[in-house]
Structures are given as C-alpha cells and as structure tokens.
C-alpha cells in the first residue's frame, strides 16, 4: 500500500496583542523594546502532524513538523513503550522551518510515538512542544514459517524456505523485507512457488564453513490488503562439511561423498516399477530416529502402515524418504527395487548404528544433498521439498518478484 505524505496547511500569522491598543500599532513595538503582549503558545507556533493524541496513524504517515517563522532548533521523534525506545530518523529543511522523516522511513504499526520539539520564533524566543500519537493496529496479521533453525549447522544444499500462512499479494514488498547474506558473500536470490512460499539460495551449493544470516523484517509489511506482518528477527546458521550422495536406481547403490572424497558405496532398494523414485537433486529437510509411515497419507491406500520406521530422512514434501528398512530380506538391498518410492537402506527393528541405515543417518545433516539418477520416473518438482537445485540459475532468478 502506498501512502502519500500530506502537506500541512499554511500556518496562520502570529498576532501580537498589545495592552492598551486603541487606535494604532505604534505603541506595540519600538527600537530595542521587547514586545509587550503575551507570547504565542507552542501550539500556535509549532505545528505537529499528526495531532496530539491521534490514533490509527498509518505506517506511511503523514508525519511532519512545521513553523510559520523562526527556526527549528531540535526535533526528536521516538517509538516509546518498547524495551528499547527507537528514534525515527529525519531531517530539518534548509530553511529550518520543517522536519520530515528521511525517505523510505515507515512507522511501526501498533506502536506509540512521542514528538519533542524545541524551536525559536521570529523574535528569538524559545518554545517547546511535546505530543504523542499511536499507529494503526491491523486486524489481520501474517507470518512466515521458515527453515533452517537459528544457530543450526547444515549441509551445503540447504535452501532458506519460507511458508506463509496466507497468500501474499505484494510479493515484492515481502521479498524485499527478507534479506539473506553470507560470509563469504555470494549472490542470493529468492524464488516464489505460488503465492505462499518463498525459497532463497545461491547459484551453487554453499561453500563449507559459510555463515549465513537471515534478517526477517516483516513487521508492518502489507502482504495483502489489510494484512500486515509481525516478525522482526535475525537468525543465522553455519554451513558444515559438504556431503552429496548419488543414488543410482538402476544399479541399486548409493555413493556417499564427503568433501568430494568417496566415503562408501552402500546397497539400496529404490521404488518398484509401479511406484518409482523421483530423479533429481533432493535435500534432507528432517531427521527422525523413528517415524510412522502410513500409505494412506500419500495416496497408497492401506498397502502399508509401519509404525516404527527407523533412521528416516525426509527428502520431499510428498513423502519421499531415505530410511532404514528392517522388514525386507537382507539380499533385497543392491539387487531388487521394492519400495513405494522411497530409498531403503538395510536396518534392524529399533534401529542400529552398525547397519548401513544407522551409519548413514549418523553422518547426515539437514541440508545434505541426495541425488537420484537412472530411475524410470520424472524429475522431482523444484517445489517438492527443498528441490530448487533442479532449476537452472536463470530460471530460478526469473521467479524473483524483484527482477
């Protein structure tokens, strides 16, 4: 929403009332003689917009201080009633008769502000004025749920992903309010999947050791008519070592590479011919020591319901996991694809660190990449989990609302 700063009306001329005035103004002033009348009140000389005690002031103002004559000596506008009172940046005009916020300044919504002004009038007399006002309290708010968690250590394929609790109409404003930076610095660009999800990533996987900062400045950003953000926080995460695992669905193997060096090649079972595994780059988004897998939640009816699947690593939102499998015979792994689309590693009931599944689970971070090749299925959709690495960089950038 765009707000237009309204110009204040022209201040009325200050009238000097002199005691004993009868027929002329000759007795009111004279060389070296001070005015005899009562000085004008600060309310008359210092014009503050919005009015003292005003409520429902919009985030874009109007906010202005004006004098009819004289000069502004000092102006301080502060957000009060918060843990740390925050000044509103602004500037006094060259003629010293007007103060306005600096360009781009927006007030916080649902906040109280104080205005303190010291000014000199045309006769050199100092006066001061104090006012307060309160900004609009929106009826509707929106928030973004995002990964990864603050202070996490993640794999080099981590994508910063925001899921919003409502459709975002003003996507450019929301994307602009979310700033992702890194040390060492790289270009990081956002990509929208529909109107309720924004993912951000660099062109290539993060370098190990990179520190990433996510500044979320959504408070008072209008995402849709009448709906404003409430989040104002900064989180950070660190990129750990590089681990990329290549699953060959035809060979039924997974080659695990750490920082480019082959750690191990382990036998797997992938999707059966009627329920093949997606091809493409997928990113581990969640780790579960044990979880329940019910085929009814992913469109397989009652074909399976396993309440204690060990060492489960989520790869897509649609239900693709890389997980331990204790119910298949040991000779299945590396020889036959029997799963419903997941990637299975040999395990035992209850899980064990001595099995291929336990070994891999203990060496996996959220953000690690698992790439599947040679499956008789389509490429995983970039929006299915953190699978955005399957989009070329040019196509990824086209999905930004800022380009």
UniProtKB/TrEMBL annotation:
Record bears the keyword Transferase: yes
Family annotation (Gene3D superfamilies): 2.60.40.3710, 2.60.40.3780, L,D-transpeptidase catalytic domain-like
Signal peptide, first to last residue: 1-26
Biological or metabolic pathway of the protein: Cell wall biogenesis; peptidoglycan biosynthesis
Domain L,D-TPase catalytic: 243-373
Keyword hit for NAD: no
Keywords: Acyltransferase, Cell shape, Cell wall biogenesis/degradation, Peptidoglycan synthesis, Signal, Transferase
Record-annotated active site: 323, 342
Entries under InterPro entries matching the protein: Big_10, LD-transpeptidase, LD_TPept_cat_dom, Transpep_catalytic_dom
Name of the featured protein: Ig-like domain-containing protein
Domain of life: Bacteria
């Amino acid at each position: 929403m765009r707000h237009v700063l309204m110009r204040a009306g022209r201040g009325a001329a200050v009238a000097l009332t002199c005691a004993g005035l009868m027929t002329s103004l000759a007795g009111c002033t004279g060389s070296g003689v001070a005015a005899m009348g009562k000085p004008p009140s600060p309310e008359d000389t210092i014009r503050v917009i919005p009015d003292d005690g005003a409520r429902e002031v919009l985030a874009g103002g109007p906010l202005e201080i004006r004098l009819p004559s004289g000069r502004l000596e000092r102006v301080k506008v502060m957000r009060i009633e918060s843990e740390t009172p925050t000044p509103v940046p602004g500037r006094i005009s060259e003629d010293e008769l007007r103060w306005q916020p600096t360009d781009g300044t927006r007030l916080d919504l649902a906040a109280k502000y104080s205005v303190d002004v010291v000014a000199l009038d045309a006769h050199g007399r100092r006066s001061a004025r104090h006012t307060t006002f309160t900004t609009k309290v929106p009826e509707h708010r929106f928030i973004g749920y995002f990964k990864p968690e603050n202070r996490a250590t993640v794999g080099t394929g981590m994508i910063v992903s925001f899921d919003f609790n409502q459709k975002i109409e003003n996507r450019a404003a929301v994307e602009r309010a979310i700033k992702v930076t890194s040390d060492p610095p790289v270009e990081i660009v956002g990509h929208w999947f529909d109107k309720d999800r924004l993912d951000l990533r660099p062109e290539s996987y993060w370098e190990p050791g990179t520190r990433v900062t996510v500044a979320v400045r959504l408070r008072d950003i209008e995402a849709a008519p009448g709906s404003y953000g409430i989040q104002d926080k900064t989180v950070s995460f660190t990129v750990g070592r590089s681990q990329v695992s290549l699953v060959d669905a035809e060979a039924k193997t997974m080659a695990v590479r750490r920082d480019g060096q082959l750690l191990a090649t382990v036998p797997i079972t992938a999707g059966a011919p009627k329920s093949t595994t997606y091809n493409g780059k997928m990113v581990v988004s969640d780790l579960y020591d044990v979880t329940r897998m019910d085929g009814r939640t992913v469109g397989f009816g009652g074909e399976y319901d396993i309440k204690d699947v060990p060492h489960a690593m989520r790869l897509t939102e649609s239900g693709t996991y890389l997980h331990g499998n204790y119910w298949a015979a040991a000779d299945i792994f590396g020889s036959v694809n029997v799963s419903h689309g997941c990637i299975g590693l040999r395990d035992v009931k209850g899980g064990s660190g001595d099995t291929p599944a336990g070994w891999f689970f203990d060496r996996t971070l959220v953000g690690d990449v698992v790439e599947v090749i040679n499956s008789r299925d389509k490429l995983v959709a970039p929006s299915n989990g953190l699978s955005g690495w399957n989009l070329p960089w040019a196509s990824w950038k086209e999905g930004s609302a800022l380009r």
